[in-house]
Amino acid sequence: xxKSVNNIINALGGTxxxxxxxxxxxxxxSNYRQKGFPARLHLKIIALCEEFSIPIDNDFIDKxxxxxxxxxxxxxxxxxHKSNSIMSSLSSDGYQLIDPxxxxxxxxxIDRLGETxxxxxxxxxxxxxxxxxxxxxxxxxxxxYYLDQGFGGxxxxxxxxGKVFQFYDEEENEPTEFTQTGIExxxxxxxxxxxxxxxxxxxxALKKEGINNFKTYFGDVSLFQEFINxxxxxxxxKKSLLEKFWNEDEFKILLDEISKKNINNDKFAERxxxxxIESALELVRGTINSxxxxxxxxxxxxxxxxxxxKKGESYSLKPLSDSTKKLITEFLSIKDTPxxxxxxxxxxxxxxxxxxxxxxxxxxxxxxIINSNGVDFNxxxxxxxxxxxxxxxSGFLYDFAWNNNNESIYIxxxxxxxxxxxxxxxxxxxxxxxAALNLKKVERISQIESL
Length: 451
Fold this sequence. Notes:
By secondary structure, this protein is of the alpha+beta class. It contains 21 helices and twelve strands. Helix content is 48%, strand content 16%. β3 and β4 form a beta hairpin.
């Protein structure tokens, strides 16, 4: 029996209590008594010991190889009755309160949140080379929790509360850790109902606690996807525009490039494109002298060939017309109250395929149902380009920002992410939507409003 681990388990309330805290079966905790805590739980165990003022054996801390100061960087945080009340509201109506994993695969986080998140992550490497990071939000950990429970499409309603960790420079005046609470609806096939339910629940939780002076910024990335799909432009341009949507600067560069006729064609790329795939691979292999298909400049033979074929294909295509470029720019520039924005979208897209107009109708219907649940849109904005900063969103999304004079404080937000769980390891595409609040910001706003 591991004496140090056994003492920690007993101090944290025993086998059953710790099993509930960790979200595992009691039999797993019994196994920990014999073999020790698995590495993936070290940070969580340290955090629990910190929370309950339980001394930790130095050998255990040393073995964890995780900087304890990261956990204590904001030890003065205190949650008031207001935050506890919000958490209670979110954990009602069938939403199960869970404790998602603190350590998550870093590469999966980067793939889904985008490269811009890299500099904000606390990343650790295991001996086997796998990179882990402290959770920067609670949505991805909740999805991993769902998969760890063996679910593959069943409807589950989760609520959560816990620390998240993002590195900020000192001049940004933001804490490296803060407490987040939220909800996730996973596996509900009625997407419209789930969208409305999650939004109304998180919105009402704020209103119930007297947080009123905030603005809601809405978007729906599926609208832009449908818009691009119905345009009469080459498939290569469609794919490229959708890929670059998540990076505003690169999107603008691409739009300018495909709107101009290429003068200096790459003859080699054109030749690669003109060949069948096997012949193209053989040509590229011979050119880079990599007959075994090894990597070249960080890319495989297949990746290099694919890039060259796309480049060659681009030379064969006519540039976008000025009217199409203008249409794309005007679509993304639409930003107004929900009703006026929808009206503007209909007017702009009236001559396009009916499938896009149907999608606009869906957006309007969602707003109508939300409004019927007592939500007004007097302080709301809908933007057609909203959602470019988080790559896992696939549809409806929103942010809450509190405004007071010249100060704007981000409170939280949420949205739909139907592709995320499959990308994290599920065999199936599972519909999901969620929302979260930064309780540190809620506390700050509450203090300002009480002055």
